Amino acid sequence: MLSIPLLLPNGSGFPARYELVFLAAGVILFSLFVGVIMLPLLLQHLEVADHAQQLKEERIARAATAEVAIVAIQKMEERLAADTEENIDNQLLTEVSSRVIGNLRRRADGRNDVESSIQEENLERRFRLAALRSERAELYHLRATREISNETLQKLLHDLDLMKRY
Question: Which chain regions cross the lipid bilayer (predicted)?
């Protein structure tokens, strides 16, 4: 508003200066009115999500989903233990299901978030791959020293390759 000149270079008055000042003052006052009076009126019915409430809901949902998953795993364990065609060692079955159930319980309790679960899986994968590499090296060593035949080497390497995929 103050940057609008009073006079033009030829000495005559600036045309419509007072109208421009009036419009600029009107815009400023209208902006203040909207910000101070209208926004609170418009936002009074807006519900702001409570972060603590959201975290509580997440914990409840995680616990509920983990409990359902645990029940499903226990049923699957019982079914696999009763299935004679699968021929799975009961100790192995119990060990694996207990580990998975433990992970689910830690996640449900909030002690194990998604990021640490991913890190745990990556570490486990790295350990498994290191073990497979050393087993492979030992198989080649056993073949080089003629302790196993070439057929046995090929069969065991094939088994290791299958284990590496999973």
Answer: 20-43
